[in-house]
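Allow me, if you will, to draw on your knowledge of protein folds for a short while. I have a record of one protein: its chain in single-letter code and its fold written as discrete structure tokens. Kindly check, if you would, that the fold set down in the tokens agrees with what the sequence suggests. Thank you for your consideration; the sequence and its tokens are set out here:
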Amino acid sequence: MAQSARDSWGRLVVLILLLTGLCLQTVAADEGLVRERMPNGKTAVATWYPGEADKPPVLILHGFLQTREFPTVARLGASLAEEGYPVLLPTLTLGVDDRRKSLPCEAIHLHDMPGDADEVAHWVRWLHRKTGKPVTVIGHSAGSSVLLAMAERHPELPVRQMILVSLLHYEGGPVESGNRPSPEKGGLGEYHIAFCKRYPAPPEAFESYRAWDDQRTLKALHDAPWPTTVILGGADGRVSPAWRARLSRTPAKLV
């Protein structure tokens, strides 16, 4: 990587570290709403800050079942836009047309990880066409897992770098206590996943997320086609010392 690119990358990471720790107000300058038809046929929405032509574009993805208005994501996007970066904040459809609200755990979840990854890939291509520049992608929490899935499925995308904030992995599965798999393929089971104590979903859809356990997450970091940085909060109680140590042994830069 050229020195100028390394310097720009370093400045962006420092900016993210600063902004994710501050309670900043969302700015409305140049903010616009974009609608796009996704591969699943649903319409997805995104917030678009055009920014300055000479700065690299940034896409920021929210966490599990959330939207682009999740406070951490919204503040970071607005603050990067205030610094002049072109910023796109998409909301995954999760199978819901024009989705604007977070999806309850108790809803029937027909969406899956490949579909999420394909939607983000669509937005990366949109942002690349819009700006003519490779895209920096940033994932927050479970949004980081979606970016890793996107990297696995679409390594040819015009991505400049990948920044994964609060990267964790999915725990639990159908064999664990409290999970009731569907007795028939295509039926609904009830599962525990992430922060959801009741998560109704077809087994195939549930397993598409559950498959992203610690081993697959680490493998995806080893195989990532783009320069990758993982940012962990020192006071984040969800991140165990063992997980931090395992992340430090991947090719990704750990901050």
